[in-house]
Amino acid sequence: MEGEAERCPLGVFTCQLCALTAPYSYVGQKPPDTHSVILLEESYIMKDPFTSDKDRFLVLGSKCSLCSRLVCVGPECSLFYSKRFCLPCVQENMDAFPQEIRQDLEKRKTPSKRPASQPGSRT
Amino acid sequence: MPPPRTKEGGDPRGRHWDPGEEEAPEKWDWNCPETRRLFEDAFFRDEDYIRQGSEECQKFWAFFERLQRFQSLKATSKREKDPVCRKHSVPALADLPRTYDPRYRINLSVLGPDTRGSRGLGRQPPERVAEFRRALLHYLDFGQKQAFGRLAKLQQGRAGLPIAQYGNRILQTLKGHQVVVVAGDTGCGKSTQVPQYLLAAGFSHVACTQPRRIACISLAKRVSFESLSQYGSQVGYQIRFESTRTAATKIVFLTVGLLLRQIQREPSLPQYQVLIVDEVHERHLHNDFLLGVLRRLLPKRPDLKVILMSATINISLFSSYFGGAPVVQVPGRLFPITVVYQPQEAEPAASKSGRLDPRPFLRVLEAIDGKYPPEERGDVLVFLSGMAEISSVLEAAQTYAGRTQRWVVLPLHSTLSVADQDKVFDVAPPGVRKCILSTNIAETSVTIDGIRFVVDSGKVKEMGYDPQAKLQRLQEFWISQASAEQRKGRAGRTGPGVCFRLYAESDYDAFAPYPVPEIRRVALDALVLQMKSMNVGDPRTFPFIEPPPPASLETAILYLRDQGALDSSEALTPIGSLLAQLPVDVVIGKMLILGSMFHLAEPVLTIAAALSVQSPFTRSAQSHPECATARRPLESDQGDPFTLFNVFNAWVQVKSERSRNSRKWCRQRGIEEHRLYEMANLRRQFKELLEDHGLLARAQAATPGDSYRRLQERRERRALYHLKRQHEEGGGRRRKVLRLQEDLDGGSSDEDRGPGDSVDIQDVKFQLRHSLDQLQAATSSAQDLTRDQMALLKLVLGRGLYPQLAVPDPFNSSRKDSDQMFHTQSQQGTVLHPTCIFASSPEALHTQERKAGAGQASRDDKDKMSSKHQLLAFVSLLETNKPYLVNCVRVPALQSLLLFSRSLDTNGDCSRLVADGWLELQLAESESAVRLLAASVRLRAHWESALDRQLAREAQRRWPEVDQEEEAAPVDHKEVADLSRDLLQFAASKVPYSLRRLTGLEVQNLYVGPQTITTAPSLPGLFGSSPLSPHPTKGGYAVTDFLTYNCLASDTDLYSDCLRTFWTCPHCGLHMPLTPLERMAHENTCPEAPQDSPPGKNVGPLPKVSALQRPYHCEVCGEDFLFTPTDVLRHRGRHL
């Protein structure tokens, strides 16, 4: 176990909207150790922490193509429609987006909150 | 970057997915394995994101099928309206695709075979290729969303913990202070979050101690998961047998005991920047000691930071102990809990039977059924004091559950099998509640979710310790207020709860505020030994946070001196320093050392390991006779250690025959296999320790001869590692749904059920850790121990266990099997544990086999002359409702007492012996008595010196100037062989004698007391060369440090030592009237006599004295004589 996550942490990614933080190990469009997948935006990437597979990556976020804020890919913070847009920018320019996206955002306004369930544990 | 251009990319209608518009003449079938393989060949190659044949690949196809179903639904519903999109003025928005397509929402792209110029798919319809590619894209996007969702949820969970708002404050406080106390109740997240805050703040050498091993593992797992390094080694754990720590590890969770050992090696603890000591409020022995060690260390390591983590109990104690360390207090996350006091009316019938009355507990269950509708979920946790109480409530509650069909009742205590313990985490079916009957294990160690009701009996059984009797006593106490609150809190973890207290509020007010710290409750032998080996100075003045009772300390020091671990100045002896490194009881450590000396290492390793873990026998044998029957062939009539020895060996045998299932084998015999795994681990650790200390020749690395074999072995190991990893990734056991009421086992988790359980992960780990071949070689050699080896082994056990001896009650042979009674020096009327071999076959202990139909004449062994008297050497004495002897082995009484007693007193002709002031031996012939006594003096000296030299040489070896690898076994092989032979000969001696425990009155009047005559009688060579000196208190003469001659007060044998008969020495032909004693003395020193033992280096050659007479100066009459010893006695008698 050589531990990929700690191999080359370039820095800590922090979403400027929701304050999600995670260490990233690559920024760009061509994730390391992956040959067949390319990204359509300059992304902050970490090794997927939920699998032991070394060449699995996880896109954390990227810059909003309008305001250049660094945002995470979480649906509460940004969306991708051929480019990355943070939700505040989408809200401001709603009319620029197709109806499907507008509908999606409408739905999202009533967020469903689920409590984080934790498995029984011995401490 | 625009999406890679593919033909169908611009087609907004996705019409190729519409099955209604099927263009191909022949039916296209995605389910055709041929087709799938073609696509897999092209897209899922080794260098691709998904690999052919992987689990991922299967998942993809499942996703693909779902997607197709979804797409076909969507395609038929709404697809007609073209979205209107005006060209936007903002450039970034201007080039958005005009028409919507879901794939524009995906931020990645797959390089396909066409862009890579691959082969194979050329003949496939391009729209099918596109369809596949599109699905793949969605699949990857789905995977990203899923993983990111987990990440976000994880962070939300962390941010939602009460402690999250205190992270910065803790770090800030730590900047300004060396010690910080973090106080927070269960559920505030301190154990998982504080290490992560430190990590985020840039600390990279963090140790976090836990009182329990299991917590180390689960916390390391949780923290590595939360800190996103689940598959890295940033977070690790280190416990006795396992470590995941690597050079990259930044946080390590370890047990307190292990940290103390690290301090022992490197007192300044240079490998850590920050030390977190968790659960300090539990006041475990080692934790208290660690705090003291740290307090001394801190001034020497000003850069070391310490965080003490505690529940909100007695915080000021810890703060002030570290000079007013700042406290960061974190509120817990608890929902409101209603407390209902339901005091029991004065217990009537229940107390008489000794069993707990289950009715008050049933009433609570009834009340819950009456008040809360079954669809409102919420389980019940009942706190009871012990296993007996649990089983009596279990019985009643199960009857109730059977009637109502609304309950699943489960016990929870530490002696349950691991699988049974895990059942409490399973969920009850809808409309049914779980009722968990638990000891205080669920108070802090085990957290079960979903508890809404707590029933608190207010009682706890704790191990008390009587330092005088060295007796562990399991006693029932009222709990402390702190425990009561802790128990209550368990009801409010997932929602508002109710706590039923089966005692009055006034009782609660009378409870002690805190539980008694362990240091005030247990034997301190091991602690004192560790303190000595860590050079922390006199344990009496060590600055404990709360000092232990002085009596316990004194008892421990005395005990260690008795055991030879400390010398008279209380400094560590060689044997003591070795014992300090063995993580076991002193007695078991001694066995290991002694055993390795006599080349009995293999069996002793197994026995020592077996005696150091909990009994592997489950209680099922009591209820299942077939279990007991299956177990019978493994039982040894020598005693429990040998039964355990047989069990372990047989188990290894089963394991090495790969076709057999050891798990099943264990279950059939009512054996908890987990304990056997522990034994194997412990055994290996012992072995390594003995090797490290040169007491055991290091086994050559058993390299299989040919390369083929090596290759095969490596392959096997790799396969095992793979299995282990798979298991770990699978997350281990999943929660199951409990079944309602069936048999009394009432549970869900049958180990053998389900295909997922086909891998026995314990077995996998076992095989990775141990060389089964080696283990089998060792055990099979031990299985057929010769009679001599067995006898020697018993001597080793006996010497190790001494003075833990019990004498059978003289009336045992007329008692029922189960009523056999035994007496120890301090405790009368102890009984045997039901699993003990002597409880089921007590005749093994009787001096002669009962003859069928024999008369009443010799119904008891009282005062009976026999050469077969036996004593029980036991590992521990445990008092629950009765005092029990635990793990007994039978040893020959006379020989054991002569060889091991710290004090042996004799009468004039040595026919009457008293061992350690409580057991009296009456020998038929004084001649044989003297002979045995003399032999024992000689043997003890030899044994002692051989052991000393071995340990001393070992001490030298540890600081070698030159590499002394060449050196052979530490003590001369022949010497050990001779000693073994002599010991065996001694043990086999058959001399009739009677054995009895002295009464209290007899003990008081045992000795003649100090005498006025100070010059020693001379019995040259009778007991070796030691000069005799009058014993200051007992009277008589001290021959060695354990033997006092002629100090027993007696009225019967006044003249027995004066009776002379004519005797001819077979060696030198001397012919004269002699007393038995004189005769012995002559025999021992006769110049013509053959030397029956080689002179040991330290013992020195026995002085050759040919005459019995010695010069004697009488203090009373002032005259000088040439007297034989008996002359002296006679002369002395005249002055009385």
From TrEMBL, chain A:
Pfam families: C6_DPF (PF10170). Residues 13-106 form the Cysteine-rich DPF motif domain. It comes from the Eukaryota. Residues 100-123 are annotated as: Disordered. Belongs to the CDPF1 family. This is Cysteine-rich DPF motif domain-containing protein 1. It comes from Leptonychotes weddellii. The gene is CDPF1.
TrEMBL record, chain B:
The keyword Phosphoprotein applies. GO terms for molecular function: ATP binding; hydrolase activity; RNA binding; RNA helicase activity. It catalyses: ATP + H2O = ADP + phosphate + H(+). Gene3D superfamilies: 1.20.120.1080, P-loop containing nucleotide triphosphate hydrolases. Residues 367-535 form the Helicase C-terminal domain. Residues 1-27 are annotated as: Disordered. Residues 171-331 form the Helicase ATP-binding domain. Its EC number is 3.6.4.13. CDD domains: DEXHc_DHX34, SF2_C_RHA. Keywords: ATP-binding, Helicase, Hydrolase, Nucleotide-binding, Phosphoprotein, RNA-binding. InterPro entries: DEAD-box_helicase_OB_fold, DEAD/DEAH_box_helicase_dom, DHX34_Znf-C2H2, HA2_WH, Helicase-assoc_dom, Helicase_ATP-bd, Helicase_C-like, P-loop_NTPase. Forms a complex with RUVBL1 and RUVBL2. Part of a complex composed of SMG1, DHX34 and UPF1; within the complex DHX34 acts as a scaffolding protein to facilitate SMG1 phosphorylation of UPF1. Interacts with UPF1, MOV10, EIF4A3, XRN2, SMG6, SMG7, SMG9, UPF3A, UPF3B, CASC3/MLN51, XRN1, DIS3 and DCP1A; the interactions are RNA-independent. Interacts with NCBP1/CPB80; the interaction is RNA-dependent. Interacts (via C-terminus) with SMG1; the interaction is RNA-independent. PANTHER family: ATP-DEPENDENT RNA HELICASE, ATP-DEPENDENT RNA HELICASE DHX34-RELATED. This is Probable ATP-dependent RNA helicase DHX34.
